[in-house]
Amino acid sequence: MKKNKVSISNPEELEKNLQYSSPVTWIALGVVFSLIVGLFVWSCVFKIKDKIIGKAKIVSSEVTLVVDANSISKLKVGQKVYINNLEGEILKIVEKKPIISHFALADGEYEYTIINEIKPIEYLIK
Fold first, then answer.
1. Fewest CB atoms within 10 A around its CB: which of 10, 13, 96, 97?
2. How far apart are the first and last CA of the chain?
3. CA 99 from chain center: how many Å?
């Protein structure tokens, strides 16, 4: 595609040779910008819930969670753990075994639930 050189000698010719953006272009640009801003706000506000369910062993009020290899990376100290509608918190993770103390339950095996919430923007930050 070959462009012609246009020489402009006065201001009236300048306006005639300028190309203007159509309103449709500006509307499309506004829609794209709005979608990007909306996606960013959504990813900062919305939370994705991930439920981890497994077996817990209680010995002398100390709870040890049995966690598979995929779920251990999702756990962190301070997360809430629910066993028989009682709430506890992960105190420490020793050798890939989360430990929770002070559950008023008899010794034995129980099912636990951990609800992990993460914002989509955190996937980009990690």
1. 10
2. 47
3. 26
Tokens of residue 85, six digits: 């509608």
Predicted TM-score (pTM) of this structure: 0.58
Query: Cα separation of 122 and 126, whole Å?
Result: 6
Residue type (1 letter), 68: D
Quick one: which of 69, 79, 77 has its CA closest to 49?
A: 79
Q: Do 90 and 116 share a structural domain?
A: yes
Residue 5 maps to a domain: no
Q: In degrees rounded to 5, what are phi and psi of residue 43?
A: -70, -20
C-beta separation of 92 from 77 below 8 A: yes
Does 80 fall in a domain?
Answer: yes
> Domain count of the chain?
2
pLDDT in tens, 60-87: 877 888 888 778 878 888 888 888 888 8
